[in-house]
Amino acid sequence: MYLVGQKTIEVFKNDGVTPFIRYAGGVINIGTSAKYSVVKVEDETADLIMLDKHRRIVAIQNNQVSDIAPTLSHELNRLSFVADAEGLIMNVDGLPIYVLNLPTERVSYAVNLLTGFWSAWTKFDSTYSTNTVFEARAVVRAIGFGKTYIGLRDLDTLNEFSLDHFDDNGSVIDKTIEFPVITHGTAKRKISKRLQIRLHRGGGPVHTTRTPTALLSWRDDGKSYISIPREIDLGLLGDTDIIVSIPLLGSYVSRQYRIICRENVEFILVGAVESINVLEAEI
């Protein structure tokens, strides 16, 4: 039994007499910053997963603590308020996923427990013209049918959740990949001669009249302004390797690329290479 506090976790066992006594060395010097983020894991992945006091997503197993999504900590530490965070464990098509909903911050993060990779999940709220958290409030796994169902926030309904679905109750799911900010190791202004992107295409509905597309855009030098999007052809169903080469994308000191896909198609980013000319003047 785990007793989780803000500063420490204490581990107890049933000795049949007391009935609970603390394990020898059963104090873990880590606490949680969001009590509803703590979830019990039903498989060998971990005993508990939670948002700790340092705003890390940690797994606790055999009294050992491990940070399962180190790169997500930076994002979480930028947020103003996390005490109302809620945790969920989902097993989706064989993938164990920890979902952290942050209602005040209006964002959710999903962590693949096998790889540590994470992504942000949000839903656009047309009433307030802003994003809000992932709608799931409860999860149930129908093992005999191999299906996962989610109970929606503020609605008395169950929805099936699967990686084979490409829409959310009829609304297309936007898939966004944001690149890290790049400088090519210099503070000098540089000219983008050519950007080459390699994508791996997955499944999705067959498009008979056209090929699906994604949109490439970017912002330069830390400004909020986003460029005019460039269209990327994602190829036909069965085209697994997509290589896109885009010349002459202007000049910058630092740049962040972004790819958005609003089509019912799976794809992942394999890599990207940019050729540049560095100008002489420092900023």
Secondary structure elements and their pairing?
Elements lengths: L1 E3 L4 E6 L5 E9 L10 E2 L7 E4 L5 E5 L2 E4 L4 H5 L9 E7 L2 E8 L4 E6 L5 E8 L4 E4 L2 E7 L4 E6 L5 E4 L5 E2 L2 E2 L2 E4 L9 E14 L11 E8 L9 E4 L7 E7 L3 E2 L2 E7 L5 E16 L1
Antiparallel strand pairs: 1-2, 2-3, 4-5, 5-6, 6-7, 8-9, 9-10, 10-11, 11-12, 13-14, 14-15, 16-17, 18-24, 19-22, 19-23, 19-25, 20-21, 20-24
Features:
five-stranded antiparallel β-sheet, 283 residues, 1 helix
How would you explain this protein's 3D organization?
The protein is mainly β and 283 residues long. It has two domains: 2-165, no CATH class; 176-282, Jelly Rolls (Sandwich). It has one helix at residues 72-76, and strands at residues 2-4, 9-14, 20-28, 39-40, 48-51, 57-61, 64-67, 86-92, 95-102, 107-112, 118-125, 130-133, 136-142, 147-152, 158-161, 167-168, 171-172, 175-178, 188-201, 213-220, 230-233, 241-247, 251-252, 255-261, 267-282. A five-stranded antiparallel beta sheet has the order 8-9-10-11-12, with no helix packed on it. A four-stranded antiparallel beta sheet has the order 4-5-6-7, with no helix packed on it. Strands 18-24-20-21 form a four-stranded antiparallel beta sheet, with no helix packed on it.
